[in-house]
TrEMBL record:
SUPFAM superfamilies reported for this sequence: ACP-like
Origin species: Terriglobus saanensis (strain ATCC BAA-1853 / DSM 23119 / SP1PR4)
Protein name: Acyl carrier protein
InterPro entries referenced in this protein's UniProt entry, alphabetically: ACP-like_sf
Superkingdom as given in the UniProt entry: Bacteria
Amino acid sequence: MQQQEIYEQLTPLFRDLFDDETLVLRPDLAAADVPEWDSFNHINLIVAVEQKFGIKFQTAELESMLNVAHLVSLIEKKLVAAGR
């Protein structure tokens, strides 16, 4: 799966979770840029992403996640490793 496809699948997930239909995912978008992106919603986001893509993140990966670009890169690597 290409990064563009991942962004396309993540966009509605982010918009729904953060209740913002105008939210545009950019590589540099981070939690500090979205008022509703607190620690509780971060956990909800990770769970939703894991379910959507059928992957699991390690704690160290989550701790080092800086922005949407990093999230997309992690998703892509996990999908490639799984042969998808």
